[in-house]
Amino acid sequence: NHITIVLGTRPEIIKLAPVIRACEEYDQPYSVIHTGQHYSENLNKVFFDQLELPKPDYNLGVGSASHGKQTGEMIIGIEEILLEENTDVVLVQGDTNSVLAGTIAATKLDCEVGHVEAGLRSFDREMPEEKNRVIADHTADYLFAPTEQSEKFLLEEGLPEERIYVTGNTVVDAVQQNRELAAQKSAALSELNLEDGGYGLLTAHRAENVDNKEPFSNLLAGVAQVGKRYGLEFLYPIHPRARSRLKEFDLELPECVRMIPPQDYLDFLQLQSSAGLILTDSGGVQEEACILGVPCVTLRDSTERPETLDVGANRLAGTEPHEIEESARLMLEKSHDWENPFGDGTSAIKVIDKVTTRRTESVSQ
Ligand code: UD1
Ligand code: UDP
Fold this sequence. Notes:
Elements: E1 3-7, H1 10-25, E2 30-34, H2 45-50, E3 58-59, H3 67-85, E4 89-93, H4 97-107, E5 112-116, H5 128-139, E6 142-145, H6 148-156, E7 164-166, H7 170-185, H8 188-191, E8 199-203, H9 207-210, H10 213-230, E9 233-237, H11 240-248, E10 257-260, H12 265-273, E11 277-280, H13 283-292, E12 296-298, H14 306-310, E13 314-316, H15 321-333, H16 347-364
C-alpha cells in the first residue's frame, strides 16, 4: 500500500509536513513528488530544512510559466513517475496548479486520489484557486474536508457522502507542532526590533490583488490609513509575485509599511502570534490568525474560509481603503476569544488512517 504525495508550493509543504511525519511514524511506505512550482530558497528549501522533511524523491523543476504550460508540464512529469512507481493513492493538498496536475495525472492512471483540504469554496470563479479545487474535489476518491461547512459544500454539489471524511485542517497540526518551537527559537521580534502586540503584519500576493495596479495601490492605501489611525507599523514579508508587480507598476510602499523578505515558518509563526492585527489575502494566514487568536482582516471580497468569519476571527474588507480601515477598527475593538473551528491537530493522522484502512478493507472484501 504505497502513498505518493504531490506538492509544489510553500503552503503545501507546510500543510503536508504533518502528513509526511505521520507516514514516517507509521512506517507507511510513501514517496514525495515536488513539482518545482516554488523553487526560490525562501519559498521552498527553507521549509524542508526547518520542518526536518526528507528531500523529495523527485523534483520536476517545472518552475514559473502560464497556467497551461506549468500545469501541463507537471502532468507529464507526474504521469511518468506514477507509471514507474506502482502507487495506490496519490495525496494532494489545497488548490494550486500542483494540486490540479497531481489530481489529473493520478486519476487517468490506476491510482486513487485523496484531496486534503477538500470542499473549500469562495464561489468566485475568477480565482484560479477556485477552479483548481472544484476540479480536484470532483475527481478525488477521498475528500478530506476540514470542517462540517466544507463537507456541506461538497454534498451540495452532489458529491457522495461515502467519499467525504471530516478530518480538521492539517494547518492546526502544523501550528501545534511548531508554535512552542517558534516561541523558543525565533529571534524575529528582537532582530526586527518589534514589541509584542505593537505592530501589524501584512501579506498580499494573490493574483487578483497584485496583478493589477488599481487593487494593489488601493490595498496599500488602506493599510496606510490603518497604520496612521492606530500608529501601527506593518511588516510586509513580500511574495516574489507581489515584489515584481510593485516594481512593474512603480508603486511606492506607504511609510508605515516595512518590506522584508519571505520568512521561514518559525519566524513567521512568531510574527503572527505577536502581531496586534493581521491584514492578508492568504488562505493559510486567515486560518493561522484564527488559530493563534490574532484579529484578521482579509483583503478580498470573498473567502473560502467562512468558518473564520462565523467565529468572529476575521472580516472581509476587499481592497477599498475605507472598508479596510473600518474592518480593522471592528476587529481591534472586539474581544479575541473565539474558538478554533479547524480541528484538534490530529488531522494528518486521520488522513493516513483513512487512506490505509479503507484500502485494506476493500482489498480484503
Ligand atoms: C501560487 C498559487 C497560489 C498560492 C501561492 C502560495 C496557483 C495558481 N497559485 O501562487 O494559490 O497562494 O502559490 O504562495 O497555483 N516566483 C518566484 N519564486 C518561486 C515561485 C514563484 O520568484 O519560487 C515568482 C515568479 O515570478 C512567478 C510568480 O512568482 O512568475 C508567481 O508564481 P506562481 O507559481 O505562478 O504562483 P504564485 O503567485 O506563487
Ligand atoms: N508563510 C511563511 N512565511 C511568510 C509568509 C507565509 O512561512 O513569509 C506561511 C504561513 O504561515 C502559511 C503559509 O505560508 O502557513 C501560507 O502560504 P501563502 O500565503 O503563500 O499561500 P496561501 O495559503 O494563500 O495559498
